[in-house]
């Protein structure tokens, strides 16, 4: 602002000098003659009426300029000193102790305040606290993201021209030049008005900077949503692949369990058959050993003499144990064998032979 004020002061000095020089110029050069009340003649330079009003005005000089160039009436008040008259007015009001007149400007929200993003660090300090650390700035916009940001800025300057500079001789390119768009499009770290002014020196940063930053913020939000959608799609694809792998693993595990069960049943069957075979072999071995032992015992035992059978007794029945009982023969007149004397007796009764015998139970037999 000081440089602008100095230029305005120089212009005013030049115009004042021209005005004073015009007072002593002659009439042949286009001067006008004026006679004041004292009867003295004075000369004045011929100057356009609008330029003369701009020189003589005591208020803001921009009002005369807007009237001359037919600027739209919805011009907003400047946020700073715009001419020497406004500067003198501000100095006078400040010297008198009265507050400076305020002009309606855009309210600066939290996004317009220059502040370095801070987040708690992961490491603890000596007091057991997590100190604040500077957040990592976002990476620059690239590829499609950069193209979207550039197109959004171009559309923004067209909307800005239609909304605030119509009708006007200013073009959209003059309001927001391509050089500023080229600087802002990749710079994702510009988040505040102060960052915007420091990076571009845009003359409308204070007035329309918030709208511009909101435009870029919407582009970044759209890009973040797109990246999140891509990430979610990849996560869903990985989940499907993982689910398919898990199903395949479960199927393989089920087949392995079935195979192990079948092998276990076959092994059990083989063990049972092996056990039966071993039992049969063990039994055959034991039987063979018994046979061998019996043969050896028989070979070592002495030979037995055969028993002599005694002659059977006719008409006599014997018991296996005890004495013999009398037996009645119903066939009379049959010849009988002679009995051993002193131990047997024969009695003839009713043409029947009754024999009484006392034999050894191991040698008597019955003859029919």
User: Span from first to last CA?
Assistant: 167 Å
Query: How many separate helices?
Result: 9
Mean pLDDT: 73
Find the structural class using helix and strand composition. Answer: mainly alpha
Would you identify the regions where 5 or more consecutive residues have pLDDT less than 50? 1-5, 21-30, 94-116, 318-325, 327-331, 336-368
Major β-sheet strand ordering: 6-8-7
Radius of gyration: 70 Å
User: What is the count of β-strands?
Assistant: 9
- Bulk shape: rod-shaped
Order of helices and strands: HEEHHHEEHHHHHEEEEE
The proportion of residues in beta strands is: 5-15%
What is the count of structural domains?
3
Q: Summarize the biggest pleated sheet.
A: 3 strands, antiparallel
Question: Helical percent range?
Answer: 40-55%
Biased composition (Polar residues): 112-128
Region (Disordered): 91-147, 242-306
Biased composition (Basic and acidic residues): 245-290
List keywords for this structure.
three-stranded antiparallel β-sheet, two-stranded antiparallel sheet, 9 helices, 3 domains, 368 residues, mainly alpha
Layout of secondary structure:
Elements: H1 2-23, E1 32-35, E2 41-44, H2 49-56, H3 61-69, H4 84-95, E3 118-120, E4 132-134, H5 143-164, H6 172-175, H7 178-184, H8 193-200, H9 205-300, E5 313-314, E6 327-328, E7 345-349, E8 352-356, E9 366-367
Parallel strand pairs: 5-9
Antiparallel strand pairs: 1-2, 3-4, 6-8, 7-8
Helix pairs in contact: 2-3, 5-7, 5-9
């Amino acid at each position: 602002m000081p440089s602008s004020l100095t230029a305005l002061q120089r212009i005013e000095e030049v115009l004042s000098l021209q005005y004073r020089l015009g007072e002593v110029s002659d009439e042949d050069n286009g001067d006008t003659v004026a006679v004041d009340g004292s009867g003295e003649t004075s000369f004045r330079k011929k100057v356009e009426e609008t330029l003369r009003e701009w020189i003589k005005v005591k208020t803001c000089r921009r009002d005369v300029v807007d009237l001359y160039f037919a600027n739209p009436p919805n011009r907003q008040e400047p946020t700073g000193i715009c001419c020497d008259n406004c500067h003198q007015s501000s100095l006078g009001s400040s010297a008198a102790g009265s507050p400076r007149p305020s002009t309606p400007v855009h309210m600066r929200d939290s996004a317009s305040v220059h502040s370095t993003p801070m987040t708690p660090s992961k490491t603890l300090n000596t007091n057991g606290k997590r100190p604040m650390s500077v957040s990592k700035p976002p990476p620059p916009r690239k590829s499609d993201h950069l193209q979207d940001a550039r197109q959004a800025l171009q559309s923004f300057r067209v909307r800005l021209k239609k909304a605030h500079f119509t009708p006007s001789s200013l073009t959209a390119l003059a309001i927001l030049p391509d050089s500023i768009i080229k600087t802002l499009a990749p710079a994702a770290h510009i988040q505040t008005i102060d960052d915007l002014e420091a990076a571009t020196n845009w003359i409308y940063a204070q007035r329309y900077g918030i709208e511009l930053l909101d435009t870029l913020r919407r582009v970044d939000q759209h890009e973040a949503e797109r990246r999140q959608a891509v990430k979610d799609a990849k996560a869903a694809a990985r989940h499907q692949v993982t689910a398919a792998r898990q199903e395949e693993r479960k199927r393989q595990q089920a087949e392995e369990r079935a195979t192990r069960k079948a092998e276990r049943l076959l092994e059990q069957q083989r063990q049972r058959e092996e056990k039966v075979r071993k039992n049969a072999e063990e039994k055959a071995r034991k039987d063979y050993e018994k046979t061998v032992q019996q043969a050896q015992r028989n070979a070592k035992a002495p030979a037995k003499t055969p028993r002599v059978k005694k002659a059977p007794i006719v008409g006599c029945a014997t018991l296996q144990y005890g004495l013999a009982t009398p037996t009645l023969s119903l066939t009379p007149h049959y010849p009988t064998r002679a009995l051993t004397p002193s131990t047997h007796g024969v009695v003839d009764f009713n043409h029947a032979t009754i024999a009484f015998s006392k034999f050894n139970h191991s040698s008597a037999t019955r003859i029919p």
